[in-house]
TrEMBL record, chains A, B:
Residues 54-120, 178-306 form the DNA/pantothenate metabolism flavoprotein C-terminal domain. GO terms for molecular function: catalytic activity. Coiled coil: none annotated. PANTHER family: CORNICHON-RELATED. Belongs to the PPC synthetase family. Pfam families: DFP. GO terms for biological process: coenzyme A biosynthetic process. This is DNA/pantothenate metabolism flavoprotein C-terminal domain-containing protein.
Length: 328, 328
């Protein structure tokens, strides 16, 4: 018995809805106004100082399966790529808007939040009952804290979050439209693992789906291709970098090229699920470039994001100068 | 167009598979042996000291939708009920095995891990660059840390985790079978939000499901009713408390009673999604008892788990004394 198959297009010729329709049919997140206010302030601050700004999206979006949400579909994404990249961009003088799945990895804190230690395992009590960071961790944590505090006090790092696909899409649209004023100085680093399928509100069960004898069938609609309006309308002249994660090697470059042709943006960073921490491929309209960590680099705990950002900075410099990827 | 419906039983009369078949068809988690060793040691330690032991399960299980997992179905569950309850059990002299969804809320650390502050927001640097806990948080954190460290140093708290439904079921079976030696001194506090539906390995796609025009249909099998063997075989004579979360008030008590009759355990703690932090209902074969926080208690930040555990301790004392819930 086949368990998964793609349905035919509906008889009326409708397949996937367009992004405008999505935004009309769904409610914006309750904190959208606050998101827009903080983002506008941050963008304006850096426009005045001519600092390049990157919007990084990180972590997975969820799609609820019921209106009173008990169950949802999620995308595997710890947020490693996004959070490590944020640190590298900051090191290189970029202002960073870090739009991440709530409770996923964040720059700097990432070293401590998702380990075998729980929060309190990093702490200890002195003899007179005062709390301090355990000496085992204190020096390294102080160094990391200093970098984090510097990024915050220099207003170089804006942290924003999302949970559902809907939160994400509304915030992505608002964020990119606000950043359009930066022209080519803006970069979009779309590392989030965005849901491909969802259940539209009008088709969703009100109450928790009940277990009954037999199987459960869920029919999900395809998520609108929002990258299209992002490239052609919202993000104006910025440099747009999307990501492709594959498990079948044969599909990686073809699908990346397909995306570039379909959406009209500039760069796809492709990686395979099992080797994404060691190797990535930069795919542009005209080129494919594989970047990997050498054994020596792996032994020295170099993170591949250093190399990713290094490459992207070359592309972005060319982009800012003359609006193409050439000359790097 | 209907989007969700329950299929008929298959022609051969097979509906949901039984738990034994589940365990035969699925691989145990790679760390099961370590889980069993630690659990056995903990249980033995407390058996010798006649300490009551509670196994708390907390957080949601996931079911993968592909073999090389990119997408999965998850159950909304921060782990509040389980983690707060663990603290109350510990306060009352119980040894606690806290089997939780990896990265969900844990006793004590829960006050710090899922807030608007990220990890490093709790820290500060002294003038000579040393790290310390920010004075704003230090006193309260020291108190919490002291409780946590006491529980650990007295070997009263064993932390174990799971991610997938499969991890959870194998560990639940092993854990309850190991605890059976405690007889009626064991309590099982099954607060985890366990998947009701899953895709069996043999029916799962190998690679990441591809987006194509049109909808995606997923057919999920019902998860075997493992509460049955837990009550009748694995957990022997312990006091078994299961939870029921509902969004439709009409269904809460009927479904709780249905579970008690179907599985033969002793107590269901029922709650409604929207009021679960203020009100719970204890349902036994013969009784229903609603327990709520008063306005004064709410104003004084009393947590409902204090009242839940207080009730359960009465039931458990009676259970330990004479094997029934009477006499409390």
């Amino acid at each position: 018995m086949a368990t998964m198959h793609d349905n035919q297009l509906l008889d009326n010729g409708q397949g996937v809805i367009d992004p405008d329709t999505y935004f009309l049919r769904n409610n914006p997140p309750s904190n959208l106004a606050e998101f827009e206010a903080k983002t506008s302030e941050f963008v304006q601050y850096h426009k005045e100082r001519n600092t390049p700004v990157v919007l990084i999206t990180s972590g997975g979006t969820i799609v609820p399966l019921e209106n009173q949400t008990v169950r949802f579909i999620d995308n595997f994404s710890a947020g490693t790529r996004g959070s490590v990249s944020a640190e590298k961009f900051l090191e290189n003088g970029y202002a960073v808007i870090f739009m991440h799945r709530q409770f996923s990895l964040q720059p700097y804190s990432r070293h401590y939040t998702h380990s075998t230690n729980c929060f309190l395992d990093y702490m200890t009590l002195t003899e007179d009952g005062k709390i301090e960071v355990d000496a085992k961790y204190a020096a390294a944590m102080a160094t990391t804290l200093a970098k984090y505090q510097k990024a915050r006090s220099n207003n170089m790092l804006l942290l924003q979050d999302f949970v559902t696909l809907s939160d994400y899409l509304f915030k992505l649209k608002s964020g990119t439209r606000i950043m359009a004023t930066l022209g080519r100085s803006a970069m979009y680093y779309l590392a989030a693992a965005v849901s491909d399928f969802f259940i539209p509100t009008e088709k969703m069960a009100e109450h928790k789906i009940q277990s009954r004898d037999g199987a459960l069938t869920l029919t999900l609609d395809q998520v609108p291709k929002f990258l299209k309006p992002l490239v052609s309308v919202w993000a104006s002249n910025g440099l747009i970098v999307s990501f492709k994660l594959e498990t079948d090697e044969k599909l990686l470059v073809p699908k990346a090229r397909q995306a570039l042709e379909k959406y009209g943006h500039q760069i796809v960073v492709g990686n395979m699920l099992t080797t994404r921490k060691k190797t990535v491929t930069f795919i542009t309209q005209d080129s494919e470039r594989i970047v990997s960590l050498s054994q020596e680099e792996l032994d020295n705990d170099v993170e591949i994001e250093s190399k990713i950002i290094s490459e992207l900075l070359k592309y972005h410099r060319a982009w800012i100068s003359h609006g193409t990827l050439e000359g790097q």
